[in-house]
Amino acid sequence: MEARIDYYANPVAAKFAKQINAAGRALSGVSLPEGIPNLVLIRASQINGCGVCLDMHTKDAAHEGETPVRLAMVAAWREATVFTEAEKAALALTEAGTRLADGEGVRDDIWDDARKHFDDDQLVALVSTIALINAYNRMNAITRTPAGSYEPGQWG
User: Fold this and answer.
1) Taking the complete model, does pTM exceed 0.85, yes or no?
2) Distance of CA 124 to CAs 19, 27, 45, Å?
3) Alpha carbons 122 and 14: distance in angstroms, whole number
4) In the predicted model, is pLDDT for residue 147 greater than 70?
5) Terminal CA-to-CA distance of the chain, rounded, Å?
6) pLDDT of residue 145
7) What pLDDT score was predicted for residue 156?
């Protein structure tokens, strides 16, 4: 597959990427339970069909110690016994926030379940992470950026 445009070599895109990356760094001081950010990034990327982000976030998660079984089970997290209730709440929020166009939006029961596991700062971090990964997914999917060559830590 060849990219429609080299998005990351374009000066306008570079300017935009600098700002969107800064938005991601703004979340660095918020402590989410270990592993949850990677699960969120992976699940949204699966839903959106973003190979670049799946390549990056599955490799980063494995590099950080995530197990192959848990990585393989992210797409079927509801039936999986390998995730905590907090992780499942984060994954449910991720799916609802990623699939807004499906018509249900984020139902109250999904929000209430997330609320049981995360404080206000953590909820803001989750919502922001979901929004951010959806933006990255769309940039890569729209331009058909090829995936597969990412090395853990490559982008910082």
Assistant:
1) yes
2) 19, 9, 19
3) 29
4) yes
5) 25
6) 87
7) 65
